[in-house]
């Protein structure tokens, strides 16, 4: 799944073109959008599979929601500049201006750039100054687009970037990434604006196995839902992506929206009015539901270490009652059981194998039983992934352990134990340079876990 990355246009050029088109500017619509999907990149950058599909689906949904949409696919830099000029002319006094981009993007010298097709941009052999000059002349700067939208006068500006922010090492042809290993940089929107990224720093925006990418597929669901404010649309999108990626992709937003709430799909429908007509006869009584497991019984199963029975009972309860905070306590107990089982383990054993299975069951319980916005959702997921990695490492499955640590680290980046453990996985795979880098970082005084720092220092000493 290739990864997606970010550009700037020359300000003087944009202002000049804007002035030439001002006289022909169309009458502003209440809602207006520019939707870009770039897929047919040159081989050096890497073509993408679903980005044009994503742009088409977003454009259709926005039109259904009353947006006037400018839709472009596989644009060069000049075509992108022209589209932005056309878009800017529609923003004056608009209620909402929305810019959506699906494709590659990079960060250069702290600024984010979109990659047009046929850009000719390459980072090979270039120093920092040259890279910045190349980016300014061959790519498109997102910060400039945000500034242009703000100055054009729309009351609410939304910028949605389904672009990757991970390392070039992770390129597989299914992720959205180009050649820059640094990913995208955080952005500070002006007042009245919101900037949404498909994934947080250092993660991968998944292209998906179907017609659309993972982020856009979730976004489309909630854009169409009546009664959701703009902020709720992105919050629910983040929860859906987090759940479906098992914690591996966490969208991020940077918001400075002001004023009244905006409902993109309209207010929720009002409840039906009361009538004086006689109530219909009740339907025949349904057969009684099978008895639900009790929460006390679930807690006892967790305390006894009966992970499979506990998780199956939690899932049955959640199916009937919905996800809830009730699942946090038994999941926490199971996590502590795994910790105890692994505490003294030094080699593969049946108990270590059982710990790995328990962690997998816990991840299923977190997905099915704990609400997406529960305060323990992310820390519990990180712990389950980290402890699963520990068990897999003891079982000699270092590649799988490394995957688990890589998924855990973005969830709790302040946890130096995960860094230290990832270093052990790298070492087991013979990747000494990567192991040394992880141990060095884990030993840093900025982390609070003193024991993890000491273990990392000891590991570094053994590598010398």
Q: Please identify, by name, the CATH architecture of the largest domain.
A: 3-Layer(aba) Sandwich
* Largest sheet strand order: 3-2-4-8-10-11
CATH topology of the largest domain: Rossmann fold
Q: Counting H and I runs of at least 4 residues, what is the number of helices?
A: 16
Summarize the biggest pleated sheet: 6 strands, mixed
Mean pLDDT figure: 84
| Shape label | flat
Distance between the termini: 37 Å
Helix and strand composition category: alpha/beta
Describe this structure in words.
This protein has two domains: 2-255, Rossmann fold; 295-413, no CATH class. It has 16 helices and eleven strands. The chain has helices spanning 11-21, 51-64, 77-88, 128-138, 142-152, 214-223, 230-244, 295-303, 307-321, 328-343, 350-369, 377-394, 398-408, 416-428, 432-442, 450-463; strands at 2-3, 31-37, 68-73, 96-102, 105-108, 111-114, 140-141, 156-162, 175-176, 193-197, 252-255. Strands 3-2-4-8-10-11 form a six-stranded mixed beta sheet, sandwiched between helices. A three-stranded antiparallel beta sheet has the order 5-6-7. It is flat, with a radius of gyration of 25 Å. The two termini are 37 Å apart.
């Amino acid at each position: 799944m290739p990864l997606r990355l970010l550009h700037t246009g020359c300000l003087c050029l944009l202002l000049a073109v804007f002035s030439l088109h001002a006289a022909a500017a169309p009458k502003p619509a209440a809602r207006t959008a520019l939707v870009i999907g770039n897929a047919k990149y040159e081989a050096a950058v890497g073509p993408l599979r679903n980005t044009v599909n994503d742009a088409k689906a977003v454009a259709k949904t926005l039109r259904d929601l009353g947006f006037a949409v400018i839709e472009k696919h596989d644009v060069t830099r000049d075509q992108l500049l022209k589209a932005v000029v056309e878009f800017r002319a529609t923003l004056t006094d608009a209620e909402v201006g929305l810019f959506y981009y699906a494709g590659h993007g990079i960060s250069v010298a702290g600024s984010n750039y979109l990659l047009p097709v046929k850009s000719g941009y390459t980072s090979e052999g270039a120093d920092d100054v040259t890279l910045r000059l190349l980016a300014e002349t061959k790519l498109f700067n997102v910060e400039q687009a945000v500034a242009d939208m703000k100055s054009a006068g729309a009351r609410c500006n939304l910028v949605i970037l389904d672009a990757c922010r991970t390392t070039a090492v992770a390129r597989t042809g299914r992720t959205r990434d180009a050649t820059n290993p640094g990913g995208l940089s955080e952005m500070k929107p002006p007042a009245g604006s919101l900037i949404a990224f498909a994934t947080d720093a250092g993660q991968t925006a998944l292209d998906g196995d179907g017609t659309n990418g993972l982020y856009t597929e979730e976004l489309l669901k909630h854009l169409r839902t009546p009664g959701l404010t703009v902020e709720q649309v992105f919050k629910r999108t983040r929860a859906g992506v987090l759940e479906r990626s098992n914690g591996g992709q966490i969208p991020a937003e940077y918001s400075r929206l002001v004023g009244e709430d905006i409902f993109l799909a309209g207010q929720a429908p009002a409840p039906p009015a009361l009538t004086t007509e006689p109530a219909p006869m009740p339907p025949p009584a349904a057969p009684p539901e099978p008895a639900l497991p009790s929460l006390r019984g679930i807690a006892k199963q967790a305390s006894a270490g009966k992970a499979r029975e506990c998780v199956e009972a939690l899932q049955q309860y959640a199916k009937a009652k919905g996800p809830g905070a009730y699942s946090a306590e038994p999941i926490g107990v199971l996590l502590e059981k795994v910790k105890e089982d692994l505490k003294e383990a030094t080699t593969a054993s049946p108990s270590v194998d059982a710990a790995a299975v328990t962690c997998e069951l816990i991840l299923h319980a977190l997905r099915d039983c704990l609400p997406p916005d529960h305060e323990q959702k992310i820390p519990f997921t990180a712990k389950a992934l980290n402890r699963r990695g520990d068990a897999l490492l003891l079982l000699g499955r270092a590649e799988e352990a490394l995957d688990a640590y890589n998924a855990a680290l973005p969830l709790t980046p302040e946890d130096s134990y995960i860094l230290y453990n990832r270093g052990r996985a790298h070492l087991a795979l013979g990747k000494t340079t990567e192991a040394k880098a992880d141990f060095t970082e884990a030993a840093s005084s900025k982390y609070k876990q003193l024991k993890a720092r000491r273990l990392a220092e000891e590991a570094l000493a053994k590598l010398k």
